[in-house]
Amino acid sequence: MTEAVLTASGRPGSIFLKLPATSANLGPGFDALGLAMSFYLTIDAVIAPDGAFAMEATGRDAELCGRLDGNLILETYRDVVRSAGGDPPAISLLLHNEIPLGMGCGSSAAALLAGVLLANHFGDLGMTGYQAMEEACRREGHPDNVAACWLGGMTTSAPKISGNEGEFVAASFAAPREWGLMLAIPAAGLATTKARALLPERYNKADAVLNVQHAALVVAAFALGRGDLLRTAMADRMHQPYRMEACPLLPLLLPLAELPGVLGVSLSGAGPSVLVIHERAARTEIRSAIAGAAGQVELIEANTSQGTIISVT
Length: 313
Description:
The chain is α+β, with helices and mostly antiparallel strands and 313 residues long. It has helices at residues 62-65, 72-83, 107-122, 129-140, 144-151, 192-197, 205-224, 227-233, 240-243, 249-253, 283-294; strands at residues 15-24, 33-47, 54-59, 91-97, 154-159, 168-173, 179-185, 262-267, 274-279, 298-302, 309-312.
C-alpha cells in the first residue's frame, strides 16, 4: 500500500481509492473463498479545508452513502486513527458507489477497508497493505470479502491459529478470462447478522466433509480453468440450504447450474443476491434463462477484478 505523501504544508496530500465489490463463499467455501467483481466503490479524499467533515456521494444508494452520521467509512477512519493514539483530522470525501448495499456484494468490506486506508494515509500510521487488510478483516469478523477486495481475483483466506489474535493469511490468483459473472439482485436486502442467525450450531460429519472436498475443488477449478470441475464444486451443504427461505432467488436459479454454458450458481456471500459464473459465449442465453426462471430481476454483469487501487498525490 502506498504510504502518505506529505505536501509542502506538512499535511497529507489527497488520496484516491477504488475498491471492488466482492462475492464470498462461492458455494462451499464458507468464510474462506472470495471473488473480486468489476463494479466499485471509489473515493477521492482530502483534508477538509474548513476543518469540518464533508461527504458528497453519487451512484447507488447515494443518500445513504452520503450521510455523515453512522457512516461506516468515517467511523472506521476515526476509530483506527484514535486506536493508534492519533487525532483524526477532518476530511472531505467525494464518493461514487456502484455496490448494492445489503445484497451480499461486499459493501461493508469495501467500506471498512476504505476507512482503514484513509486512516493510514491521513493519520500517517505507516501500515503495510497487508496490515491494512488484516485490520479490516478483524473489524469484519471474517476475512473472505476483505481479502478479495484488497487482493483481487479469486482469493482463499483464513485466520492464523498460532501467533497474535487477529492475524490472517490470504492468497489470490486470477480467474480465467473466458469466464464471466452475472449477479441477480432481488428487490429486498438481507442483513448479514440475520443471515448468520439462520445457520445451525453443529453440522453432521458427512456434510462437513463434502464442503471441505468441494471448497478444495473450487480452488482447483479456478486455478486450472476447469469449468467442468466448478459445476460440481459449487454445491454446498453448510449455509445455502438454511438460507433458502430468506433468499428466494436461490431455489429459482440453482437449477440453472445444469444448463450448457453455466459453470456454477451460488449465493453471493450471505445473500440474498445470486452469483452465476458462466462461459462468455453463452451470455445471451444465460440472461434469458435467468429472466425465465426469476422474472424481471436486476442483473449486474461483471468480470473478475483486480484488487484495490490506491493513488496518492
